[in-house]
Design a protein that fits this description.
By secondary structure, the chain is of the alpha/beta class. It folds into two domains: about 10-255 and about 465-485, 3-Layer(aba) Sandwich (Aldehyde Dehydrogenase, Chain A, domain 1), CATH 3.40.605; about 260-445, Aldehyde Dehydrogenase, Chain A, domain 2 (3-Layer(aba) Sandwich), CATH 3.40.309.10. Helices cover about 35% and strands about 20% of the residues. It contains 15 helices and 23 strands. The strands form seven sheets. Strands 14-17-18-13-12-20-21 form a seven-stranded mixed sheet, sandwiched between helices. A five-stranded parallel sheet has the order 9-8-7-10-11, sandwiched between helices. A hairpin with a 5-residue loop joins β5 (about 130) and β6 (about 140-145). It is globular.
């Protein structure tokens, strides 16, 4: 009689070796489409494991920062090539542990490929500044310098893309790293680290410790040897991270929540706007910080939009992301599913009209997964909780409005400021919107999701604290500016004093 194959057990990656954690506790990485399937068993690490990882990173920094950036880039380029070769395998691993459909996990891996190639290119382009001195026989310039040991805490919804956004620019700038990935999706981060190790990354430069936030994440924040911290997750946890970094003045990057909006004007291409609202609202089961959980529609086209939008949402097929017929996968875990169901009840109690969905799916093939129907509330008031609070699930609230100015007021009337979108053929309104929307990202005639790696990514208000990921903006966070003066006059020259005639 055949026996079940035991799930693979994984280790931490410290100082170039896969090592056992100090404790015996473990975390089961389960398939959210079938909770009986254990994808892998990972360490539930503690502060001792983190201390070892930080020490390895600290020791490796001295040599890594002196490695020429073009040589660092060669390692990243090799890693990108390996990711290309393994894209399909890694995408399937990701769908098993995270749940989103295979087309989306392929996109997640592709984003890591794009970021790795991009930062490999920056190995020969970390340009500084040269400026004329105000004094004779004096040369002035500013150059980038690595910051030190970077602590990173990453989320589960983009388990390879987001770690790559942080790892690759940090490495190319000459920093060393201690990374704690989300406990729900550790395998995808393991795959990314495996590729970097095989590409020749020296031991200690990148260290990965698996575990939960309180036991493995908090010690990173508390370590005096961690110079800067990059966190992606909820606003509530981001506030804790910010406070933990403040006493030792750690440079801190926070990428947090969103309550993003699609504005549909009366002159919009409705076919395009409807397709975009479906994708923006229900791609990744709504589990994106950039998901379009609000759609504001001009009253002149409101009824037509709602009717056609709801009709399309009803046709979405929910199931296992590995099934090519599936349009939308499960929620990541029971807790997130319960959050979605809680907000459905809030929406109904607030008086919003439940146009479709609203229920857990647990019959037949879906019985062992954390599935929820794609859900649309219509005739919403912009002040309702379902229009104000981040749900992070397949729930979209549709809000009617009368004018462009009202639409902008609705869009800006939340605590978040990540992404916003407007559908219009009026170029004047398009330009006014990109100016007046209080978000870090604005799309015109495109949904709120779809960021490209070579442009800055991030938000305002309770979404972020000013720093940006991706593009050249990432180099600014993971490096320090060093201004250098060469005086070859052979005499004392006093700036702002001796330059006066």
């Amino acid at each position: 009689m055949p026996t079940a194959v035991a799930p693979k057990t994984f280790k931490n990656y410290i100082d170039g070796e896969w090592v056992e954690p100090r404790g015996t506790r473990t975390i089961e990485d389960r398939n959210p489409a079938n909770r009986d399937e254990i994808v892998g068993i990972f360490p539930a690490s503690d502060k001792t494991d983190i201390a070892n990882a930080v020490e390895a990173a600290k020791q490796a920094f001295g040599k890594w920062r002196l490695t020429p950036a073009p040589k660092r880039a060669e390692i990243l380029f090799r890693a990108a090539e390996l990711l290309v070769e393994r894209k399909e395998d890694y995408a399937r691993d990701m769908t098993r542990e995270m749940g989103k459909v295979l087309a989306e996990t392929r996109g997640d891996v592709q984003e890591a490929i794009d970021m790795t190639y991009l930062m490999a290119g920056e190995g020969r382009r970390q340009f500084g500044h040269i400026a004329p001195s105000e004094l004779p026989d004096k040369f002035a310039m500013a150059v980038r310098a690595p910051a030190g040991v970077a602590g990173m805490i990453t989320p589960w919804n983009f388990p390879m893309a987001i770690p790559s956004w942080k790892i690759m620019p940090a490495l190319i700038c000459g920093n060393t790293i201690v990374l704690k990935p989300a406990e729900d999706t550790p395998l995808s981060t393991y795959n990314l680290v495996q590729v970097l190790e095989e590409s020749g990354l020296p031991g200690g430069v990148l260290n990965v410790v698996f575990g939960d936030g309180p036991d493995a994440g908090a010690p990173i924040l508390d370590s005096p040897d961690v110079t800067l911290v990059s966190f992606t997750g909820s606003t509530e946890v981001g506030r804790i991270v910010s406070k933990a970094c403040a006493p030792t003045f750690k440079k801190c990057h926070l990428e947090m929540g969103g309550k993003n909006i699609i504005i549909v004007m009366d002159d919009a291409n409705l076919d395009l706007a409807i397709d975009s609202a479906v994708w923006g609202g229900f791609g990744t089961t709504g589990q994106r910080c950039t998901a379009a959980s609000r759609v504001a529609v001009h009253k002149k086209v409101y009824r037509e939009f709602v009717e056609r939008f709801v009709e399309k949402v009803k046709k979405l097929r929910v199931g296992d992301g590995l099934d090519p017929k599936t349009d939308m996968g499960p929620c990541i875990n029971e807790q997130q599913l319960n959050t979605v169901m809680k907000y459905v009840e809030i929406g109904k109690n607030e008086g919003a009209k439940l146009a479709t969905g609203g229920h857990r799916l647990d019959a037949g093939a879906l019985a062992k997964g954390w599935f929820h129907e794609p859900t649309v509330f219509t005739d919403c008031n912009a002040k309702m909780r379902i229009c104000q609070e981040e749900i992070f699930g397949p729930v979209v609230a549709v809000i009617p409005f009368d004018s462009f100015d009202e639409a902008i007021e609705i869009a800006n009337g939340v605590q978040y400021g990540l992404s916003a979108s407007i559908y219009t053929r009026n170029v004047n309104n398009a330009f006014r919107a990109q100016r007046d929307l209080e978000t870090g990202i604005v799309y015109v005639n495109a949904p709120t999701i779809g960021a490209e790696t070579h442009l800055p990514f991030g938000g305002t208000k309770n979404t972020g604290n000013g720093h940006r990921e991706a593009g050249l903006a990432a180099l600014d966070f993971y490096s320090e500016w060093k201004t250098v003066y060469f005086d070859y006059s052979d005499r004392l020259q006093r700036a702002q004093i001796d330059n006066v005639e």
